[in-house]
């Protein structure tokens, strides 16, 4: 923030300072309480949302909403995925890694009827892995970097530890978002500052040093937390989305700045100032007045942004959670909520959003709800898989099969390491490694987080395949596999095949696969080399590279 | 190589309508007309980041030798001039080879920017590479990625976007930033450049490592195919999965492809040609010995020529940028400029001659660019002026006491030059003019980068309002689709 409390030049400056300090810390402690109280009050004032429809034989609320929409469909009924598919899916979704062979075997041996729900609950308790899996997603979304400047350009600072701790402690999502924006929140990450050629910059998520950074911050917040793409409206009226004339966006962006913003259309100054205003509905109606002091302004903004009456906030995050676990959102693109692009399941989206707020904006609550549904646990079926095509946005989606999801670089590397090294310590997780390697780039992790990203491209490319096929990083990983630490005798090969399938693909091989693999290994006297080939083929197989 | 025909183009735009990832042409009919006029099929983009002082190179200004105590306003250029093959056009000395091919080239001297980049090279480089100012809130794709994506490969076996001469540095955060703006941005890894850090060292992933052989890789691929059948066969009905497996084979094919053959220049080119692409200065003769790359740049140009011959679409060759290194000259600028010219003059001229004699210059556009110009008269201490480095100063206040500060080049966003060869640009043309005294701003036909990009795109038949959708909004190849080609530059 550009402005700081100015201490008056008085004899009793110390006394004044003390009073100010006490007032500030009281305000800080109050901000979080105020937010939580406001959440309860807003909820109480909101009209009820429709509950899940009654569908015979279906209990889970999510499944009832989904079944009600799919009722008229003539397609075949989706089937429940098998245990191995389920286990791999939940491990990758919650811990960001595949299960170990021991965990897999234990689960397969368990015959209790509620073992899936038990597994979900146990995994959600693995707080370090859960936090490790979420951290890179939010580092991308916040443009968090491990440096304060890059070639003379200030960054948005390093939020890694803050993200990790917040997820580890499962902090309420609205509180987290307010902590990013509101300087009076007690849990706020301490901002760094940096000096570049004599100019001081505050290095933090909210940057309002000038017109451009203020607009960027506002656009980033709108996109990430309100699922509303406004960047196009930053220098002219939005090309496509008529909801966002430039003035409406500038009014919103003004809330991030120490003063109202001037309208600059495509680099032409108009001299006209747009009064700051909050553009979304609130539970208690429009605010009476916009504070003029920057900290108070950001405080008010944070409270309104996460307000239960602001439908975009809660819908946007539950839509992201749904997309993260099912492959596609109710609203697509997830960054582009707009009135003319209706969600695929508006009732379910509304209900999940309200349920999320009613449970204190508890991310784990909603994740658990999604994972325990039969909808999440259906078999992957390419025929039933929903697709999203920008050219045909109104094409319905049914969620009778999850959409294939490509492993992120972090999921890929951690899982490949776990499969070969058998354990990955918390401090060895891929997200902690700031190096940008040919493999990390080929698998879609940006070299630098200098812009925000809410989804990584999951396309396939020759550069990527070359790295997998012939790059040193995967080769060395396989060479270091623990299985090679002890001599492997020829008689061990059947057991090796079984182990490779269980460790890499999280399932035993089928009889055919066993035969094929053993024939491959037996064909070469240098069978250790063939075991490495087998590792490579399984790690590069589509079954490993995607979550199905 | 075949020109895109009208029908091909129609087919590709029709397909675009059904595929979200394909380019949208805001005005399809106009697009067809533009493509019809296109001359260039391939681009070799010679990228000299650091800020080449235009007064000592292609926009020569009067030679004013060092005199202790001279005023900044009296310092206009640090080298004598030489004639070029274009009548009336003079270059700074040390560029004799390039001067001799200028009748094939087009010189633009009047690129100017509203935005003054001040001390920050990376923002200016980002702008030159993407056409957008940083930050955008979107990962902006580079011009190479945009051209490669829009036109696709010339030869399907050769990656459409190849980048030569930059380290794949894993830890330096400044270099990581650079990797982003030369990259595909939101287009995704499919449109990422094929990186060739050092052409003299070949490319590791194209060669089998110790203990590997081509046969073993083939066995592995067969095994991958076999294991991807069976119980995971259901996955293969997904188009994405099938693409993935196909791409694995494409990668394997690349290892035997024209790309690899292009690396055989040491065997296939004559000693005279190889020598012509070498720097004319040795490692011990340079002031900054830690920043001498030998044949990396020159042979990079040779490799670029060979790649274009094999069907590359867009090849960028960089003289690797480093802060206060190479073309980023502050202290001893005059002496270092002499050295840098010895590194680039021969190889670039040889590239033009080679393309010309092989009949490739018409369909190959060569661009030479840097992120901003320089002011010779500047404060010895960087970064004190809020509007940038002496963008508006006459240099009257500056007294040059130390010869180290002679040719101490400040950053100058108000005037910059670009060179073009072939590809349908008008040969022998000199366009625009800058003032002969400080500040040396563009005083005749000033142009914006957006329009320069639009001109490059037009030479390739790409309308400036071509766009791809991200986050629900169009992102155009020129800023907001508003680029206007500078037709005077085109033949």
List the helices and strands and how they pair.
The complex is a heterodimer of chains A (548) and B (491).
Chain A: H1 13-45, H2 61-70, H3 83-94, H4 101-109, H5 115-125, H6 127-142, E1 149-150, E2 153-154, H7 160-168, H8 173-181, E3 192-196, E4 199-203, H9 211-226, H10 246-253, E5 261-265, E6 268-274, H11 294-305, H12 311-326, H13 346-358, H14 363-371, E7 405-406, H15 409-421, H16 438-442, H17 462-470, H18 472-479, H19 493-505, H20 511-522, H21 527-539, H22 542-545, E8 546-547
Antiparallel strand pairs in A: 1-2, 3-4, 5-6, 7-8
Chain B: H1 6-18, E1 24-25, H2 28-37, E2 42-47, E3 70-71, E4 81-83, E5 90-92, H3 96-100, E6 105-111, H4 121-130, H5 143-151, E7 161-164, H6 173-181, E8 194-196, H7 214-227, H8 239-254, H9 258-262, H10 265-268, H11 271-276, H12 296-309, E9 314-318, H13 333-357, E10 364-369, E11 373-375, E12 399-400, E13 410-412, E14 416-421, E15 429-431, E16 433-434, E17 442-444, H14 449-459, E18 466-470, E19 473-476
Parallel strand pairs in B: 2-9, 2-10, 6-15, 7-8, 7-9
Antiparallel strand pairs in B: 1-18, 3-12, 4-5, 6-14, 10-14, 11-13, 16-17, 18-19
Order of helices and strands of chain A: HHHHHHEEHHEEHHEEHHHHEHHHHHHHHE
The averaged pLDDT of chain B comes out at 88
- Strand order, main sheet of chain B: write it out: 8-7-9-2-10-14-6-15
- Give Rg of chain A in angstroms: 26 Å
Output the number of helix runs of chain B. Answer: 14
Instruction: Tally the helices of chain A.
Output: 22
**Taking strands numbered 1, 2, ... along the chain, how are they ordered across the largest sheet of chain A?**
1-2
What structural category arises from helix and sheet content of chain B?
alpha/beta
Can you count the beta strands of chain B?
Answer: 19
State the end-to-end distance of chain A.
45 Å
Helix % of chain A is 40-55%
Query: In terms of quaternary structure, what is this?
Result: heterodimer
Unreliable spans of chain A are 1-10
Principal-axes geometry of chain A comes out as globular
Terminal-residue CA separation of chain B: 21 Å
Apparent shape of chain B:
globular
Strand content of chain A: 5-15%
Number of E-type strands of chain A:
8
Structural class of chain A: mainly alpha
